[in-house]
């Protein structure tokens, strides 16, 4: 009897050893498969090592199709199989549950709640990998829903547990490299382009020899530099991407290169070049073996935008229809999901002379543009998060240096990193930039001053002027230019000049009502529209503003001197050509400068055919 007990005990121990080895072996083989590009991964799965007659083997086989198969039905298990997975392998049961939430069509609120429930279970059971995987999906969903502050807070909570793995795209985990990229996406969308650039470069520098990481890093670098108006640096990054595309000979990299070149030239106000690059990118993309509908959608947006700027209504409408005909899941997601189509549709209708129809699209788009994120957050918290991430980064690197494993880890990640993960990141990048640009065309905010940019401000003023109906309806449009601003740049440097410009813009913005429009016209010149204001109202408003500006102590900003400005103001009481209004403002501004600066000159609007106003 005693000998039987010994034999049974030995058999149980042997079974446990075999089970542990199988589970560990399956996990290792799945990691190896997921590190490969999609085409290699599919080949590996043809002759897969998993015993699909068992629940464990079947699950590991199906879960190895991550990023290849996005149909929830593909990953389905029977009720009895789920029961076995839950009872015998609970860690993988909840890993699968997080995956199924990601693939579901649940609302954002439902997704957030279910992810947080799994986070709590993983934390309670000490499953850091599952907690990381779930956190990464939660952060992705928050970014997609444009709850960027919330995403940053989730990242901060997970930093102490983050994986030391420097490779990006480690499935069913959440590495520090992934955190870098998620922080970039969040900060970019919030308009903190300096911070976004820092995290973009942290991510890129993790794998300097990996072409996929470099292209992905260069992509985010280019967009960020364009937003910072560092066009020479952006062009240099485009050249690096071009060299990389030429060295690898990969068509997908050429598509990205052409796409970002189109974005670059569109920002340089060269719509004809933007169109040519975007068209070449689309042709190359559609002729490739693997057509990504999300890329196609982004390119149609660029083509629509360039044709609108070239005032080609028919072509713009053609590309807009192409863009809108793509499946919804490949279009922009989140609270602003329709703003691209609405605004483009409004512009097309305006070009066709259908102004009433255009107005309805404008109104709907503006409602979406002014969506506000429901999250309490302070930039002090953001600074603490940044510090925490840096500390975690340094700690992990020191540990690896002490163990003499850092070079090996980077080399391994370079050798095995998945190019598909990089392409997926490119898709996420385009989807997460909606708050400021929507592929650089549907933007409304100037990246330096955080007030309306020239395009959006003028377009909004134009809409207001063209919809004037009442006899007593008036607006005043002004061009405001800082006096002797070059002295500040020369004395304190351009960086300090940018700080002063931002300070001036913020002060002016706070003096405007909701019905007014204030934006950066270019350089140190700003455009202002006072709704319902007469010349006297405008003079009084600018007098008050001038008094506030003159009292500013620039030494607190690190600069010297005081601020003053000149302005040319035009009163408009009927529908008018916006270019003629601005031209008259410019003449009045020039007269104010010639007359001694620090003053305003007003006049009612006169069409161009009338005598000179000054």
TrEMBL record:
Residue ranges of domain GGDEF in the record: 473-605
Annotated transmembrane regions: 408-430
Domain of life: Bacteria
Reactions it catalyzes: 2 GTP = 3',3'-c-di-GMP + 2 diphosphate
UniProt enzyme class: transferase
CDD domains: GGDEF (cd01949)
EC annotation from Swiss-Prot or TrEMBL: 2.7.7.65
Any Pfam family matching the protein: GGDEF
Coiled coil: none
Signal in keyword set: yes
Signal peptide: 1-20
Keywords assigned by UniProt, alphabetized: Membrane, Signal, Transmembrane, Transmembrane helix
Keyword Transmembrane: yes
Protein known as: diguanylate cyclase
Organism (species): Salinimonas profundi
């Amino acid at each position: 009897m005693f000998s039987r007990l010994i034999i049974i005990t030995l058999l149980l121990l042997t079974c446990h050893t075999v089970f542990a080895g199988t589970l560990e072996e399956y996990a290792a083989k799945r990691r190896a498969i997921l590190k490969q590009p999609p085409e290699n991964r599919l080949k590996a799965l043809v002759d897969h090592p998993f015993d699909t007659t068992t629940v464990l083997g079947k699950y590991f086989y199906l879960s190895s199709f991550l990023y290849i198969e996005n149909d929830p039905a593909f990953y389905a298990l029977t009720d009895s199989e789920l029961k076995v997975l839950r009872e015998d392998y609970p860690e993988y049961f909840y890993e699968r549950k997080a995956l199924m939430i990601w693939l579901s069509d649940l609302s954002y609120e439902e997704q957030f709640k279910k992810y947080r429930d799994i986070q709590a279970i993983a934390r309670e059971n000490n499953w850091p990998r599952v907690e990381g995987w779930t956190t990464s999906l939660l952060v992705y969903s928050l970014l997609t829903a444009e709850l960027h502050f919330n995403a940053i807070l989730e990242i901060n909570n997970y930093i102490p547990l983050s994986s030391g793995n420097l490779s990006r795209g480690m499935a069913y985990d959440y590495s520090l490299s992934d955190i870098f990229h998620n922080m970039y996406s969040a900060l970019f969308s919030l308009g903190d382009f300096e911070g976004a650039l820092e995290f973009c470069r942290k991510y890129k520098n993790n794998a300097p020899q990996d072409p996929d990481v470099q292209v992905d890093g260069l992509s985010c670098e280019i967009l960020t530099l364009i937003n910072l108006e560092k066009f020479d640096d952006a062009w240099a990054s485009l050249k690096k991407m071009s060299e990389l595309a030429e060295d690898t000979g990969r068509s997908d990299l050429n598509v990205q290169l052409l796409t970002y070149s189109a974005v670059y030239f569109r920002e340089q106000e060269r719509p004809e070049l933007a169109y040519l690059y975007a068209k070449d990118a689309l042709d190359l993309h559609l002729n490739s073996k693997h057509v990504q509908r999300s890329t196609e959608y982004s390119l149609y947006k660029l083509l629509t935008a360039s044709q609108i700027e070239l005032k080609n209504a028919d072509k713009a409408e053609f590309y807009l229809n192409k863009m809108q005909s793509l499946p919804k899941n490949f279009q922009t997601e989140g609270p602003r999901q329709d703003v691209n189509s609405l605004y483009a549709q409004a512009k097309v209708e305006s070009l066709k002379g259908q102004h009433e129809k255009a107005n309805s699209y404008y109104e709907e788009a503006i409602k979406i543009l002014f969506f506000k994120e429901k999250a309490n957050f302070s930039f002090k918290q953001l600074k603490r998060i940044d510090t925490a991430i840096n500390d975690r980064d340094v700690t992990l690197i020191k540990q690896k240096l002490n163990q003499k494993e850092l070079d090996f880890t980077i080399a391994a990640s370079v050798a095995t990193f998945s190019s598909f993960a990089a392409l997926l990141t490119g898709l996420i990048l385009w989807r997460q930039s909606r708050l400021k640009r929507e592929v650089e065309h549907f933007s409304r905010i100037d990246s330096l001053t955080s007030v309306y940019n020239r395009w959006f401000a003028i377009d909004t003023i134009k809409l207001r002027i063209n919809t004037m109906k009442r006899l007593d309806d008036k607006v005043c449009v002004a061009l405001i230019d800082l006096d002797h601003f070059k002295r500040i740049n020369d004395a304190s440097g351009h960086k300090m000049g940018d700080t002063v410009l931002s300070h001036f813009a913020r002060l002016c913005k706070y003096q405007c009502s909701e019905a007014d429009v204030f934006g950066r016209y270019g350089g140190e010149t700003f455009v202002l529209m006072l709704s319902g204001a007469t010349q006297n109202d405008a003079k009084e408003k600018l007098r008050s503003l001038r008094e506030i500006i003159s009292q500013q102590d620039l030494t607190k900003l690190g600069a010297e001197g005081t601020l003053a400005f000149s302005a040319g103001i035009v009163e408009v009481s009927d529908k008018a050509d916006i270019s003629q209004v601005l031209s008259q403002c410019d003449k009045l501004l020039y007269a104010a400068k010639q007359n001694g600066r620090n003053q305003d000159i007003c006049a009612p609007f006169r069409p161009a055919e009338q005598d000179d106003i000054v």
